[in-house]
Amino acid sequence: MICAAFRVKFRRLWTVGSCVAALCTSHVAAQDMPLSQVLQNDSPWRLVADGFKFTEAPAVDKDGRLYFSDVPSGRVYRLNDDGQAEVFAENDGNTSGLMFGPDGLLFGCLYKAKQVVAYKPDGSYDVLADLPSANDLVVSRTGHIYVTDPASNAVWLVKHGSTDKPQKVAEGFRPNGIILWQDEATLVVTDGESRVLRTFRVETDGILKFGDAYYSPLQTTFGAPDPRSDGMTVDDDGRLYVATSVGVQMFDPTGRLGGSIGKPQTTSLSNVVFGGSDFRTLYATSADKVFARRVKPSGTPSIVRRTADK
Fold first, then answer.
1. Where are the domains of the chain?
2. CB 249 within 8 A of CB 258
3. Fold of the CATH domain 33-309
4. pLDDT (tens digit, 9 = 90+) per residue, 31-75?
């Protein structure tokens, strides 16, 4: 069974019941997940948009429309019906993380302003929290927002729609990218200075427990000390994809590396997300450009899964 392949330290932290319930559900058949199950031979990377300074924060709405940020310019873009990038919002906060959450709201991290915000349809926003730093975020179905704070070596929990103050829920490493598994029972955080990804069990009140190295080892470019792991996404079969200096590294649900999708250009990737009308388009932000390629699996965002469950 899959639990036999778990890292020893991780197994010691979790009870056998928690392991089976939270990590093995829906992924029992995931014994071997090579890149051949992901890539389409006739669909290489294609250029989606260019001419920017530094692209980041790809996010998709319930229709699969792509939004992304050009961090230094302070602009958030979205693709229009013709596939062209148009300005959605402009501010001096330097948006470095974006994700759609409950009620179709677009949540963001303003890196320069050190704030977590909720964007309105007209591109203005409401400030939800001020933090020591705000780099990237992920939003749960219940409106729990987890934010990486590299300045404090911490992860914060911001509860949207609540009067609770932001709560530090993990610390002691340098967090960067962040994502939830599809069942939202496990949170994954990258550490750009480490060759492993950390996983945490998510409690019902949003608190994180049992953080430990799980996904490993990440590949590095020749002579580089670390993989420069950044943003992540997951597909409907439980695979995890992380943007790195090597390319998009793909892991199966047991934490094993299944392979790396080569970069569309020589510079590092900053983030990835599934989008398109069927959520089978993998978008990647890379320096001054945004790329996309069609893949076999889908990565349905929680905003769509939640609507389907109603």
1. 33-309
2. no
3. Neuraminidase (2.120.10)
4. 578 899 999 999 999 999 999 999 999 999 999 999 999 999 999
